[in-house]
Amino acid sequence: MPIRWIRSVKLALLMIISIPCLTGCWDRLEIEDRAVVLGISIDESKKLTQEENESQVIESAPKTDMVHVAVQIALPGRIPLGPSESGGANSGSQGTVWVIDVVGHSIDDALMNLQQQISGRLFFGHLRVIVVSEKVARKGLENVNDFFRRNSEVRRMAWLMITKDNARKLMTAAPKLERVPTLYLIATLDEGIRMGKFPKDYIGVFWSNSVKKGQEGFLPYVELRKEGNVEVSGLAIFKNSKMVGRTQPLDIGGYMGIKGSNPAGYRVFVNLGGAEKTVMATTTHREAKTKPSIKNGYPHFDISIMLEINVEEKISDAVMISDVEALKQVEKDEKKKALKVYSNTIKMTQAKGADIFGFGELIRAKKPSYWNSKIRTKERWQEMYKEKATFEFHVSVKARRVGMRAK
Fold first, then answer.
1. Per-residue pLDDT tens over the stretch 39-71
2. Per DSSP, which regions of 127-266 are E strands?
3. pLDDT, tens digit, for every residue of 28-38?
4. Which domains are delineated in the chain?
5. Which residues are in the Spore germination GerAC-like C-terminal domain (predicted)?
6. What 8-state DSSP symbol labels residue 297?
7. What is the C-alpha separation between 240 and 134, in angstroms, rounded?
8. Which among 157, 174, 111, 165 is positioned nearest to 137, based on CA atoms?
């Protein structure tokens, strides 16, 4: 009897342990039943359309401008999987994705209206790009940030970008090198990071910087060209959740230099005394260190930047790269131009009261007593950064390589 009782207990325990392992697929959802969202564009819409009557909003909606949302959904079995199927010169993007437009009072309302129009459940696990028009960004991204931040399916490695004109055009673009517009946008930004043309600024980084007391967020500012290609033409600068300005493309290099971001890939022409005595130098490496202090009662920052450059090209044989004086002149000219770019980038962000560099966070970390007694809030730092903060640059340039041929 004791042996039988022990066997029965063991069998019961084995069954109890096995039951949870048998319920692993209870909430499964077949991929054919999902509408996989690859990209979303958000524009302003002042026209009241039929979608407003189909809205799930109970009673009267707020009298605000509606949003026009375009969703790029992957078509099952149409996404290219190998080199033989890549390239969009013939078929374009219409054969691989389905772009649907919808209007709503908010992002959540618009996507709810969209869900009523398609059979599959919207799935944001593969969402890679969110494009917002400049008009919407200047009014504020509170609703955009709130919706996507609370959605557990949205990856923090996705890209959020601002475009000058209509954002929907980027959802329907047909680039020659890629059949899926969203993948082309991602490849453009990733290639910019690899070449040292743009810093890593995924949507998770933007959200993190935006909520800090001593820092503001920024996003890539992109423009669509005639052939369907996309150009990163600057940084969209934010103050709280509103876009307050944009930089020029060269200012991206200024930001990366002040932050010491690598790799470095910006080029500059150096005149050594005449139109034909011109060489092109490329920055290959940066090192930056910022030392905060309190000067005359206000924050002061000493920024030391070291640049390594390559002399890559010369216009004519009149330039003698092997000449030590010529290399010193190249270094001197590069230093002068770098100081100008860094200074102008700082002044531009100060004029907007938007500290995208995180100098306020340095004060919080290194000078906590000053922060707690004089600043304390994000709004107070915005004012102090704009009116009272001072900066001093110390730039050194070293030409490391001059190529295989010196003469």
1. 999 999 865 554 555 555 545 555 667 899 999
2. 129-133, 159-163, 218-224, 230-239, 242-246
3. 667 777 888 99
4. 34-47+62-77+95-246 (no CATH), 251-401 (3.30.300.210)
5. 233-403
6. T
7. 15
8. 165
